[in-house]
Specification:
alpha/beta, 10 helices, five-stranded parallel β-sheet, Rossmann fold
């Protein structure tokens, strides 16, 4: 098992424990993007780079990474979703490492475009990364933001699409790569759970805005999540389910 795989499993076990104790959910959405977050935070992003989690209902995963990196206080994840906790179910601005509040779909990419535009105006060379969900692409704000990003030459903007194919409602957008390329973005398509593919894609730099289509599995690592993603979307495990999920994680991840 690689260092990356060990870290991902460790964080998933931590989230399962907190979800069971606090009876708060959104685990499958967080598991879907965890390989992406670990690659970004442990291998790719430099100190001055910025990150926006547009897929706000996966904040559990981001908070787990921020705690592990020491950006949040040790043990703070134990308060996730609890009364008066800073760590609500969605990403909340004001928490160390969270630059923008998200949860309502379609807002993170436009915010990232604004950040990248501001950085360019100030002649800053840092990159802006954002993770969006496939369901968010039914929001017109994303497509408007993509048009603006190309118009303003935002070549330090990187958008990672968590393409886990579990959107329950919305329009079938069919060939996403062709659509993104029609908006004049550079596009790469990868397996969003393969460390090397993620690292290779994220290390690339281009002269236009950059879209990475990361094909993922919602609930990756726990077969119950993967097979019943809709049922588990916001559900927390009871004691029996918690033990079962830990076992599945160690067998299947």
């Amino acid at each position: 098992m690689t260092t990356h795989e060990k870290k991902v499993r460790q964080l998933k076990e931590r989230m399962l424990e907190v979800s069971y104790k606090n009876q708060q959910g959104f685990l499958p959405s967080a598991f879907s993007i965890l390989d992406i977050l670990v690659t970004l935070y442990y291998e790719i992003m430099e100190e001055e780079d910025q990150f926006v989690l547009s897929k706000g209902h996966a904040a559990f995963g981001l908070y787990a990474v921020l705690e592990d990196k020491g950006i949040l206080e040790k043990g703070e994840l134990d308060t996730f979703g609890q009364y008066r906790s800073r760590l609500s179910l969605m990403a909340e601005r004001g928490i160390s490492g969270v630059l923008f509040s998200t949860g309502s779909l379609g807002h993170g990419l436009p915010e990232a475009v604004g950040m990248a535009y501001g950085n360019r105006a100030k002649k800053r060379e840092n990159r802006v990364f954002t993770v969006i969900g496939d369901g968010e692409l039914n929001e017109g704000t994303n497509w408007e933001a993509m048009l603006a990003a190309y118009k303003f030459g935002l070549d330090h903007l990187v958008c990672i699409l968590d393409n886990n194919h579990t959107t329950e409602q919305g329009i079938d957008l069919t060939n996403l790569r062709r659509k993104f390329e029609a908006f004049n973005w550079h596009v790469e398509e990868i397996n969003g759970h393969k460390e090397q593919e993620l690292a290779d894609a994220l290390n690339q730099k281009h002269h236009v805005p950059y879209m990475i289509i990361a094909n993922t599995i919602k609930g990756k690592g726990c077969s119950s999540f993967e097979q019943q993603a809709g049922l588990w979307h916001s559900k927390a495990p009871n004691e029996e389910e918690y033990k079962m999920l830990l076992k599945e994680l160690n067998e299947n991840d």
